[in-house]
Amino acid sequence: MSFLHVARRSPRVLVATSRSFASTSRAASQVKASADAVVKKQASQASIPKSSCPQDTVMKGLNYLKGQPQVLALADDQYPEWLWTILSPKEYPDDGPGGKADRVRRKRERQQAIKDKNFMSTQ
């Protein structure tokens, strides 16, 4: 791990990536992780605003075809529910070593290491 990678990581990631082979600490970390996930989900739901413009607002720049009516904003309940969560980060269930979450985490670490190595080679 390079210095830049450690400096960019949040303290929460440093705690979450530590592994232990003791079953009691793993169970405790799973309980803590599930509690943290519930708190994060509640906080994200509370902080995600619905649309930023009121109903029937003219959406400039969306109508690029000539001779078509102007595009108007709809009411919030007329949009699909997945639209409001599209910008939230993807969460993978922790299914142990070698699982999907572990592979995604390792891939991100490898990509970051490559970026750090490339950055340091330009200095």
Task: Give a verbal description of the structure.
Belongs to the mitochondrion-specific ribosomal protein mL54 family. This is Large ribosomal subunit protein mL54. InterPro entries: Ribosomal_mL54 (IPR013870). This protein has a domain at 92-123. By secondary structure, it is mainly alpha-helical. 0% of the residues are buried. The chain is flat, with a radius of gyration of 22 Å. The protein has helices spanning 3-8, 11-16, 23-47, 100-122. The chain is 49% helix and 0% strand.
Helix and strand composition category: mainly alpha
What is the element string, with H for helices and E for strands?
HHHH
**C-alpha termini separation:** 18 Å
Biggest beta sheet summary: none
Note the total helix count. Answer: 4
Mean pLDDT: 76
| Tally of strands | 0
Show the helix and strand layout:
Elements: H1 3-8, H2 11-16, H3 23-47, H4 100-122
Keywords: Mitochondrion, Ribonucleoprotein, Ribosomal protein, Transit peptide
Biased composition (Basic and acidic residues): 110-123
Region (Disordered): 89-123
Concise account of the structure shown:
With 123 residues, the chain is mainly α. The protein has helices at 3-8, 11-16, 23-47, 100-122.
Labels describing this entry:
123 residues, mainly alpha, 4 helices, transit peptide, structural constituent of ribosome, mitochondrion, Ribosomal_mL54, Large ribosomal subunit protein mL54
